[in-house]
What we know:
The protein is α/β, with parallel strands linked by helices. The protein has 2 domains: 9-161, Rossmann fold, CATH 3.40.50.970; 178-231, 2-Layer Sandwich (Alpha-Beta Plaits), CATH 3.30.70. The protein contains 7 helices and 9 strands, in the order βαβαβαβαβαβααβββ. The strands form 3 sheets. Strands 1-2-3-5-4 form a 5-stranded parallel sheet, sandwiched between helices. α1 (37-48) links the parallel β1 and β2 (52-58).
Amino acid sequence: xxxxxxxxxxxxxxxxxxxxxxxxxxxxxxxxxxxxxxxxxxxxxxxxxxxxxxxxxxxxxxxxxxxxxxxxxxxxxxxxxxxxxxxxxxxxxxxxxxxxxxxxxxxxxxxxxxxxxxxxxxxxxxxxxxxxxxxxxxxxxxxxxxxxxxxxxxxxxxxxxxxxxxxxxxxxxxxxxxxxxxxxxxxxxxxxxxxxxxxxxxxxxxxxxxxxxxxxxxxxxxxxxxxxxxxxxxxxx
Length: 237
């Protein structure tokens, strides 16, 4: 989002793990009030300001309290860019299922509700599902929709990495993390503030990726020159 939209943007936040975006160095949520309020407040802002508005809302929050607000925005012609972050689970409070999950609270399998189908049923035309861990795909969708003076919804979909790690380990696999290639530290240093991943740490002039904080998403490797950040070599037991 920062790479594509830089100025005169109001960032609307909501309740979820992404609430951390309100802090430095992200500063990508101008307000966080209550669950689902991002939609209603943004509608009000759009009525008194010509600033571009971007809404961040998670999948669980969308199902619980976001849908009425989106209906209101559509009905009254408000034109924000809505980013729905879909990891298929209620991650913030302990990975409980929601209507978009493939299982119930009792562990029974079910067909998940697709957020894109729900959004399209509201009559919203600009809807796209992108890979949350693919920067090129994500930035392309943001760039395209942000130029349109219409209500647009991007569903950024990707499994919560905490869940993915548990699945990999349960199957006896080894979870792959990333490391900075030898002699490439200087090419990665800007990510400390620009990307602000907690695993990327700078001490003095050296930058390194702390293994126990890396969750293997690989996004950092897409933001620097190819070969600067690579999968960490497996250690021999």
